[in-house]
Each structure stands twice: as C-alpha cells, then as structure tokens.
C-alpha cells in the first residue's frame, strides 16, 4: 500500500460516511469515532489499490475518482464493476480471512479514506456497540451483493435444461 496520511477534513468526510451502507444507523458521535480511525491515501491512474490474492488489510472509501474491480483468469483481466465517490470496497476484510478475490485499480487520480482492519477489530474492545453495528451492516451489504449475483446467474441459466 502507498503511504498513508492523516485525514483532516471532517466536514467533508463525515457526511460521506453517513451515506455509506456499512455506516448506516451510526449517530454523529459514532461517525466521528470512525473518522478518527481514517487515513488518506492517493493513487494515480492504473495504480493497483490491491491485487487479487492479496491479504485484506483495509476498508477503502472512495473520496475522489473511480476504482475499477477486475478479476484475473489465466492472465486476462475482466472488469466486473467500477465504483465512484461515496462507495466503499474491501468491507469483507473485517469479517473475512480469505484473500481478495478481485483486484482494485485506480481510474484517474483517486483519493481514498481507509480504515485499517486492525483499527476496526480494536473497536470490539473499545466500543462494542459500533463494532456490532458495523459487522451487522457489512453482513447486510454482503447479503445484498450475493442476492444480486444470484439474480445475475439466474438470468443466464437455461431454464429448459435446469427445470428445478
């Protein structure tokens, strides 16, 4: 990962946090606690934020620019998604132990606010209410994404050859 820097712009960042699903239900005081965990990192066009197979270490909140999610198969990259400002990637890093299944690549100049996995896990000891709500929200977000993936797969199944 590139060099992390402190994040100072609380008036800009906290409203962004309040609109991200994994921070849903947190009050202003709790959002400010999350803000204090954040660090800033910048990427240039086509820099990798993380690579498929890397160990997950952070949750990434896109502040500026876009991040393209790629899946590599036999040396070829396939674009699955592209996320812009206000979106979050790497949320499963808090609850998962598996390596990243996708690569994240900066499209243009990208600024991210990042929360280290360790800082979030420390919330379990220091503020279990925030930790519990974050884990519940992450589980809900992952469930929504799984449902979306299921619907996409069902679209491509030939119903005549799979009657069940």
UniProtKB/TrEMBL annotation:
Residues 22-141 form the Cyclic nucleotide-binding domain. Keywords: Ion channel, Ion transport, Ligand-gated ion channel, Transport. GO terms for molecular function: intracellularly cyclic nucleotide-activated monoatomic cation channel activity; protein-containing complex binding. SUPFAM superfamilies: cAMP-binding domain-like. Transmembrane segments: none annotated. This is Cyclic nucleotide-binding domain-containing protein.
């Amino acid at each position: 990962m590139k060099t992390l820097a402190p994040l100072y712009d609380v008036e800009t960042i906290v409203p962004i946090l309040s609109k991200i699903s994994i921070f849903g239900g947190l009050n202003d005081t709790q959002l400010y606690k999350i803000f204090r965990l954040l660090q800033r990192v910048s990427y240039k066009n086509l820099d990798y934020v993380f690579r498929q197979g890397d160990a997950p270490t952070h949750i990434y909140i896109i502040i500026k620019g876009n991040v393209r999610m790629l899946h590599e198969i036999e040396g070829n990259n396939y674009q699955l998604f592209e996320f812009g400002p206000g979106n979050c990637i790497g949320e499963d890093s808090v609850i998962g132990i598996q390596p990243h299944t996708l690569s994240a690549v900066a499209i243009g100049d990208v600024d991210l606010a990042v929360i280290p996995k360790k800082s979030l896990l420390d919330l379990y000891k220091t503020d279990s209410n925030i930790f519990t709500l974050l884990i519940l929200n992450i589980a809900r977000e992952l469930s929504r994404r799984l449902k979306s993936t299921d619907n996409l797969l069902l679209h491509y199944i030939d119903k005549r050859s799979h009657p069940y």
